[in-house]
Amino acid sequence: MPRIAESALYFPSKTFTNEDFFLKFPEERDSKTWPKLGIHNRHIIADNEVPSDMGLKAAEKLLNDHPHLRTEIDFILFTSPERDYYTPITAGVLQHKLGLKTDLGAMDVHQGCSSFIYLLSHADGLIKIGAATKVLVIAVSSLTRTIDENDKANRFIFGDGAAAYIIEKSEEQVFHSYYFGNDGSKKDKIIIRDGENRHPINEDSYIPFTNEFGEQQIPAKFYQDGAGVFRFTLDRIPKMIQLILDKNDLKKDDIDLYLLHQPNEFIVKALTKVAKLPEEKVVIDVANYGNTVSLSIAILIHNLNQQNRIKPGMRILIAAFGTGLSWNGCIWET
C-alpha cells in the first residue's frame, strides 16, 4: 500500500494582490462579487520561467531536505497545463535535471484540476503492482500565462505554483474507492482552443469572437464558461461523493475531512451546502493562492500536514473537478 511520505511547495515571488487587481480594474473596486470568492493574493509565474522550472524548484526543495531520496526514486509523474516540448515528455526531462538515476519510469498526465487524483491513482497502482517503491509526483499550476490581461474574472481567480510529493510503499495508509468521470461533450466549457493540431495558431487566433455561450472568447487564450462549470460542479460532484460513500457503506459524518478542489471560496461553500457536507469538516485554503488547478489538492494536504491536522486513523475524502469536463475522487485512510 502507498503512503504520502514527504512534500514541498514552491511559489514564485511575483504576486498579484487584490489591490493590484483594483488598480488595474478600478471600476471593480466597489463590486460585491470579488469578496465572496475569498481570494486575497495569487502567485504569478515569472516571465523568464517555464512551468517545469517551478516543478523543478519544488522537487529540489524536497530532495534537499531529504537527500537520501535522490537515489531511491524509481518513477516520476508530472502534471502541468503546459509542457516543455511537443516531445519528449517533461517528466523525463526533469529526471536529468534532478540528477536522478536513469533506471526509472517517467510519465506526464494532463487533466487540469482533476490531475492530482490521477497522479495519486497512478502512483498507487505502480506501487501495488510492484513496479515502483518510491514515486516522485510533481504538480504545476501555470495557467495565468494563458489568460488575457483584460480577462477580469480569470485574472482574479487563478494563481501559479508547484508541489512535489513522495508517494512510497507502506502499510500505514490506504487510498481506495477511486471514482473517475469525464464528459467530452462539454470540452468547450474550459478550453484554450487554438495552438495545437485541431486548431493551429492562425491570423484569427487573437481576435475575440462571441462563442456559443454568448461570451467573448479569444481562441488562443484561456476561456471558461463560469456559469456552466458552476452548474456542472453542483450537479456532478455531490452525486460522486455520495457514490463513494455508498460504496463503502459510509455516512457523511464518518468522514473526518473533505478535501475539495479549490476554485474559490464561494464555489466550495456552495458545493458543501448542496452536497450537505458537515461544514466544519470541509477545508478551505484559497485566500493566498487563488485557483491553482491541479495544485490545489496538493496545497491542502501539505498545509494540513504542516499544521499537524492529518493524524493516523483518519478517513479523508478527496474530490476534484475541472477541464474535460472531468471529475474524480477517492478515500484516503491515514
UniProtKB/TrEMBL annotation:
InterPro entries xref list: ACP_syn_III_C, ACP_syn_III_N, Thiolase-like
Keywords, in A-Z order: Acyltransferase, Transferase
Domain Beta-ketoacyl-[acyl-carrier-protein] synthase III N-terminal, first and last residues per copy: 107-184
All copies of domain Beta-ketoacyl-[acyl-carrier-protein] synthase III C-terminal, residue ranges: 245-333
Pfam families, per database record: ACP_syn_III (PF08545), ACP_syn_III_C (PF08541)
Single biological process term from Gene Ontology: secondary metabolite biosynthetic process
Segment forming the signal sequence: none
Keyword Acyltransferase applies: yes
Domain of life where this protein originates: Bacteria
GO molecular function list: 3-oxoacyl-[acyl-carrier-protein] synthase activity
Record PANTHER family: 3-OXOACYL-[ACYL-CARRIER-PROTEIN] SYNTHASE 3, BETA-KETOACYL-[ACYL-CARRIER-PROTEIN] SYNTHASE III
Protein name in UniProt: 3-oxoacyl-ACP synthase
Protein species of origin: Acidiluteibacter ferrifornacis
